[in-house]
Design a protein that fits this description.
UPF0045_domain, single chain, Thiamine_BP, MTH1187 family thiamine-binding protein, Alpha-Beta Plaits, MTH1187/YkoF-like, 4 strands, elongated, alpha+beta
Length: 103
Amino acid sequence: MAIVEVTVIPIGTGTTSVSDYVAGIHRALEQEEAEGRVRFQMTSMSTIIEGELDDLLRVVRRIHEVPFEQGAGRVSTSIKIDDRRDKAGSMEQKMQSVAAKLK
């Protein structure tokens, strides 16, 4: 299982607010999660998605398209991929590992 951190930034929208675009991306991610292929967690600055790498790359492509569908003329998407193959991991497991070391 891999974890992707993705930031999708609509450009040329005529406003500094991006919450409508974020809401559209959230809806698309909810649909993907409902189908059981990925899990996601939104933060104030990016979105973290976990699943199989092929599914994650497909989902990133899908959410990259959302601002275009909402009228944005340009979209900049940044991606970080954590693909660990020596053992299974998850968003929760990574946080639990750090928490255990803080005790």
